[in-house]
Amino acid sequence: MKCVIADDHPLFREALSILISGKSIGADVIHAECVADLHSTVESDGAPDLLLLDLHMPGASGFSALGWYVGNHPDKPVIVISANTHADTVRRAIDHGAAAFLSKSSSTDVMTHCIKQVLAGERGLHPGLEVSTNGASLKALDVADALASLTPQQFRVASMLVEGLLNKQIAYELGVKEATIKAHMTEVFRKLGVQSRTQAVLAIGNLTVTPAQDTDLIA
């Protein structure tokens, strides 16, 4: 069994890797420290049997990475593990396709049990966490579906667009010509159903994660 841990905190990845590769679960673990790494892993090795995903990682805009992955690999479960356990965040993550939501402060026993339940086919789990009655909006779900139709390169362009980078800056970061970025941008606009950079940013903004409460750990 193969598992990808997508998180930009190396110490947490290592700790989680020890848990996942141990006797209780026994999975082979691949690390991804940003969304680009996750894309590369999926492109080269295929979707893993389980993805453990932190919402707050480089290349992600709120629930964008979750929506993209679930939309492309609906049969592969995702467990969101985050320090942001706001009730609205938990509910929206599940609405966007997460099989479960775990707090980063959960005990190893809670994490192990939840992971085993998900691998056994259970869904909608959020051990010890409150869930809001207000789910993801239809607009947010539509945007997530649109992002799922993007290629990995188009997804990266869209993410950099949200960060405020200009076409020439995006081209430099991705090591391609500006004309290539313009072509990608045209496809991003078309799939999102928008006509400008501002409209694209506003659309993807529907996937913004609810800010962590004072009682939450900083992700």
Provide an overview of this structure.
The protein is of the alpha/beta class and 219 residues long. The protein folds into two domains: 2-119, Rossmann fold, CATH 3.40.50; 138-207, Arc Repressor Mutant, subunit A (Orthogonal Bundle). It contains ten helices and five strands; from the N terminus they run βαβαβαβαβαααααα. It has helices spanning 10-21, 35-45, 64-72, 87-95, 108-119, 138-148, 152-162, 167-174, 178-192, 197-204; strands spanning 2-6, 28-32, 50-53, 78-82, 100-103. A five-stranded parallel sheet has the order 2-1-3-4-5, with helices on both faces. Helix 8 (167-174) packs across helix 9 (178-192). The radius of gyration is 17 Å and the shape is globular. The two termini are 28 Å apart. Residues 214-219 have low confidence and may be disordered. This is Response regulator transcription factor.
The fold-level CATH name of the largest domain is Rossmann fold
Alpha plus pi helix count: 10
Radius of gyration: 17 Å
Unreliable stretches (pLDDT < 50, length at least 5) are: 214-219
